[in-house]
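[job 4471] stage=fold_predict status=RUNNING
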Amino acid sequence: MKIERRFTKANQDAYTGIEFHRTTSEIRNPNGSIVFSLDNVEVPESWSQVASDVIAQKYFRKAGVSNDLVRIKEDDVPEFLWRSAPKDGQQVKPNGEYLGETSSKQVFNRLAGAWAYWGWKGGMFDTEDDAQTYYDEMRYMLAAQMTAPNSPQWFNTGLHWAYGIDGPSQGHHYVDFKTGKMVQSQSSYEHPQPHACFIQSVKDDLVNEGGIMDLWVREARLFKYGSGTGTNFSSLRGSDESLGGGGKSSGLMSFLKIGDRAAGAIKSGGTTRRAAKMVICDMDHPDVEEFISWKVKEEQKVASLVAGSKLHELKLNEIFASIRSWDGAETDAFDPKVNSALKVAIKSAKKVMIPETYVNRVLQYARQGYSSIEFPSYDVDWDSEAYNTVAGQNSNNSVRVTDAFLKAVQNDEDWELIRRTDGKVAKTVKAKELWEDVGHAAWACADPGVQYHDTINAWHTCPEDGQIRASNPCSEYMFLDDTACNLASMNLLKFFKDSEFDAEAYMHATRLWTITLETSVLMAQFPSEAIARGSYDFRTLGLGYANIGGLLMNMGLSYDSDEGRSMCAALTALMTGVSYKTSAEMAKELGPFPGYAKNAQHMLRVMRNHKRAAFGKKAGYEGLEIKPVPLDSKNCPDRHLVDLAKTSWEEAVQLGEEHGYRNAQVSVIAPTGTIGLVMDCDTTGIEPDFALVKFKKLAGGGYFKIINQSVPAALAKMGYGSAESEEIISYAVGHGTMGNAPGINHTALIGHGFSQVEIDKVESALPSAFDIRFVFNQWTLGEEFCKGTLGIPEELLNNPTFDLLSHLGFTKKQVENANNHVCGTMTLEGAPHLKEEHYGVFDCANVCGRIGTRYLSVESHITMMAAAQSFISGAISKTINMPNDATIEDCQAAYELSWSLGVKANALYRDGSKLSQPLSSALIDDDDDDLEETLMEAPAGERAQILAEKIVEKIIIKEVNKQARERLPERRKGYTQKANVGGHKVYLRTGEYEDGKIGEIFIDMHKEGAGFRAMMNNFAIAVSVGLQYGVPLEEFVDAFTFTRFDPAGMVQGNDSIKSATSILDYIFRELAISYLDRTDLAHVQPEGESFDTLGKGVDEGVSKNQQTNEENLAMIKQVSSTGYLRKRLPQELMVLQGGQANLFENNTPIQEATGTISTVSVNVQKPTSLPQLDDRAKAKMQGYEGDACGDCGNYTLVRNGTCMKCNTCGATSGCS
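[job 4471] inference complete, writing structure tokens
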């Protein structure tokens, strides 16, 4: 093969033009403990810290690299490709002469060197210069992040060639490329294990070779070296089918649970949390119903474990508490007949089904002196003990559906489940009901996925050797059982220069990587003889790309557009066309793959169908029931790409007809998990972007917010100037300062007593802040300032829910506006200057930010897959994101659309379908019901019911379980306010606790009908119950102010409120003004100073008008509840700083503060709670999935095809 130079020059270092530097790589757990650390890591300067960390932690060889290497001469190999080994030949030395890799150049050299070495031995190059050119070009592309192979290549390839690292055989085999004979490996690394994706068969046999238990061993060999495997288990007999020795089989599911547990015990490649595994079942298997619902039931078990354990801990400790609070005889404390609190606690425990055994055990503990119990409680974290306890968590599940089954669904026909032992019908079910079960399972827990058996096999290049029955874990590699695939992906954005896509460089990279993957087949060893033989005979490759989402955004194209889909199709067609052309060229030099001869006509038919799709043909396809989506050349923004794609397919078919092909398959679109991070890809595989604001890792630790780097390029492409772009970007990322923030800024803070010192402290903490409320605390501002200047009691400061900004009197809306200005909206919706017709360019897989509403539709994911699928040998690994409110029917419709468009497999993920992941929508939309609209549209007779439902949903359900009900005193103070709203008299009466906090309200109407009066009366009772259960009055105020329904209009008889949009608007304005000092809701400012009025320098503490004692008494009578005080002077009333210094002549020391009502109030309401964003919820708001990484513990997992990857350490649940 002739190799041309494009990125390097002859007689010049391959890395010329790429600047390298040394950095520190460190990965920490969320608690700050170090997971991995390495100093003086040499990487290209252009690499991000994440890419540097991934190659250092994941791919550097940590041990066994000798510092005393010598070259081993081989007569038939060029000198520059001679392998190296320790000088004395020893593999292990005690004196520390073995080190690890510390430079990325070492990794690039060993990978490219090993490929060139084996390529030379396999006759891949015409001359030594071709081999040298190949070696240089490959090293350059790796360093420039243009391309990357799958993880097992990084783990294993070149260790023997570069360092002489070896070890005992692990039971692997390979076929000698010279003789074609099967050989059992004698070493671990001379023939590396570079393949990521495997498909393995399983026989209906328990212990013999190729059987069930043997499969677990074969899987373990793959998992150890970082690979993934898939198996179709439909050959196993169903439950209750007869065994050869008598008795009945335990069935498919019992064995799947064993395999699941075995896979969960093995770390993939020694580093990843779990093995990567796919389990597949045909739709006619007798146990398919149980298989479909398997994970649904396991998720239910997790929910039960979590809820039950927390209830146990809560209720059992309530029993302890009731015993501790007993103040009678000690022996009576344990007797529920005497201790009434204990009796209540026991009854409460029984009501929630706490076993009596445990209740009795707690009483026994208490008698022995124990005061509490630490009952093990579980949570819903993905890697938690609850999930580890249940089955089915270590694999992706899929069902195989045929065209016949889907047509039976359409026609509502019966479907037969077939016994595996004798072929008889085990059971007949309705196809539609079985399909609904699939939709429900996908809706409930995101499993199983669907693989379209007949579509897959219609594009099968080798049907003479059997049907394709399975896939790898991520569903992109689909071929015969007992074969393997080597993956590599190209970073599309690296080929986009100066607003043009460099198609020639892309074709050059495609050619070289096709050669590389073929070489990897030649040099590899495999975990079983069957896989070694299958891989040798068919030589399947898996070349693909990543960053299509980033490329389209850079080009100013929406992911959901005809232009975007056409661009994707053209790139895919060109890649696969050039790859098959290269495969035909290799066949000319080395011969076609051994299985080609008997499959030649089938393969050429498939090639012609690909060519027809590349030429945009809508008809004329051979042997296809479901027609592919052809290349839409009319809408492609790059005509040059279309022309090159057509030419490449013409040449691929022509050369194939002459020479055959070296490879049965050449392309897939993989999820590019860890390798996507190494290439600094914004998006993985064929996925769109997941967020517009990213969190960039710093070399010294920590993160800072940056805009997605595709956004500035897209704005420039669409004609926005630099000043406009800067404002748009600041809208999303935030300004990082409160200097000019609306409502809460330096001026407002100074007015509350902040000096420049405190303001500087706040400013220094803002750039990394996710929410300004988390900056305003005692740790940022200092305890002395908070207690002294701001006067905040210590118990409030230490309360984790305390919101300092709310305490200072800033409203929720003010905080929200300031937050958006300082920390950014994390979306571009509503950004200044940005035209609404351009919003689509920035649409992501999920809603962006708290105020964003846009996201890509389900159809946009599927149609993008369909545009690419027509030109892919294998399939596409992709998650189809669905909103939380998607229905089971929506899931079924998505599956059916995929089938109709010729997609080979489909994996759905509905937001919130996993217990372990918090809802995106819940974080974005706290209250998605618009009460005003609902009431306006509802008939008058239904308004009472709507209001009652609103209270139950918005207030009671959300808050009632937080604390026990606090009863009001038998005699309590309050006030009555009479007013006229829109011509209707309204009487509002309040009831208060001793401290002045509101605890109940009464509402009466003078002339309204009995129905409306009854409704308002019940409404008041519901609100009162909520208040007594601790629901903050603020919640009611936010829920009901500004609601609009009749009666409404002008207000008479209230000194602060002059108009109202409804009775509820009036009532909660009044309560907010009186108890929360919410003067922003008043039309006329209440008279008099409030207790938190700021002093003015030297005048602080001195009243403007020195009042007489008589005036003071008159003031107290005016604002106090006279009935409650029984016309007696309240001796316990304290004097607040800045208030009346000589209120009482005898100056009695004051011990306690009590509250009154109306405009003078003390502690009338708890501050609005600071939102409790745990790490999972915070991660979800940042665009991540909300799960913790099993390797480093950080909550930076993102969807990655059908798998997940960590953006901190690069761990992946897939196999690439």
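[job 4471] summary: The radius of gyration is 35 Å.
[job 4471] exit 0
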